[in-house]
Design goal:
The structure is a single chain. By secondary structure, the chain is of the alpha/beta class. It contains 8 helices and 7 strands. The chain has one domain: 3-Layer(aba) Sandwich (Rossmann fold), CATH 3.40.50. It has a 7-stranded parallel beta sheet with strand order 3-2-1-4-5-6-7, with helices on both faces. Strand 1, helix 1 and strand 2 form a beta-alpha-beta unit. Helix 1 crosses helix 8. It is globular, with a radius of gyration of 17 Å. The chain starts with about 45 loop residues before the first strand and ends in a 7-residue tail after the last strand.
Length: about 290
């Protein structure tokens, strides 16, 4: 299958945080018309944070088409979330929506509890929700901004994993969204890049901790991906030329990330743990 995805310049207008899919130009491809499942995750139950849009939406679609029931945790983008719910249910799978802020440890525990009650358990946890903002000077990063970034991007992963693990059986998987910024930090994304480095370290350490339980932990490190986070958090010139810096000369579409998350969730990947899968458009990941 040869898909020709759009290359910069991207005309997408600036959006307020956290951004919505419908206002993006070009509209992201989440695999709605292209992803074909083959039962790799049949009968499994997944939680995906940030599953309303971007990478999380693409993963939710793919997981449903692979036979999984899916709980979508999201902040407040209700229209986007209900679109994903419809797509999951169209595949004959259960879909659960849980709105709220993952900064709150109690809310994270509530996400897991509702998934257990509604779906009957948890086999896959995808920690994907993220916050980022761009600053050219460290003096412009407030204490509150720094704390917010860490609370959403890394603290929530700890709360969610800690809550989910007691419900997970051998063969289960945790997948954390890291970034090319984990190893190659963009200086204007200082807080975000720092948390992404922490996520990679957290994933590697947790994989070792959970190996005896038969629970695998891995990370995916995307390069530039065309999601609502981009027009809502980056300067207009950066949005226009987003992805131009990698060898493929374009941003990835969320659909192009989904296969990595499927592979890492697949029980057949039983010896893959403690690794980071880089999806970077040809840019080396060290």
């Amino acid at each position: 299958m040869n898909i020709h995805y759009p290359k910069p310049p991207y005309p997408s207008p600036k959006q307020p945080m956290p951004g919505t899919t419908g206002k993006m130009d070009p509209r992201p491809d989440h695999g709605e018309n292209s992803y074909k499942g083959s039962g790799k995750l049949k009968g499994m139950r997944a939680i995906i944070t940030g599953g309303d849009s971007g990478i999380g939406r693409a993963v939710a679609i793919a997981y449903a088409r692979e036979g999984a029931d899916v709980a979508i945790a999201y902040l407040n983008e209700h229209d986007d979330a209900h679109e994903v719910k419809t797509l999951i249910e169209k595949e004959g799978r259960k879909a659960l929506l849980v709105a709220g802020d993952v900064q709150d440890p109690a809310h994270c525990r509530g996400i897991v509890q509702r998934a257990v009650e509604t779906l009957g358990g948890v086999d896959i946890l995808v920690n994907n929700a993220a916050h980022q903002a761009s600053f050219k000077d460290i003096a412009d990063i407030s204490d509150e901004e720094w704390q917010l970034t860490f609370a959403v991007n890394i603290h929530a992963m700890f709360y969610l994993a800690k809550a989910a693990i007691p419900h997970m059986k051998p063969g289960s998987a945790i997948i954390n969204t890291a970034s090319i910024n984990s190893d190659q930090p963009n200086p204007t994304l200082l807080a975000y890049a720092t948390t992404k480095g922490a996520i990679q370290n957290f994933s590697n350490g947790l994989a070792q901790l959970l190996a005896e339980k038969g629970i695998r932990v891995n990370a995916v490190a995307p390069g530039p991906v065309w999601t609502p986070l981009i027009p809502s958090t980056l300067p207009e010139d950066s949005v226009k030329n987003f992805g131009k810096q990698v060898p493929m000369k374009r941003a990835a579409q969320p659909a192009e990330l989904a296969t990595a998350y499927v592979m890492l969730a697949d029980p057949l990947s039983s010896y893959t743990s403690g690794t980071t899968v880089a999806v970077t458009g040809g840019k080396p990941f060290m």
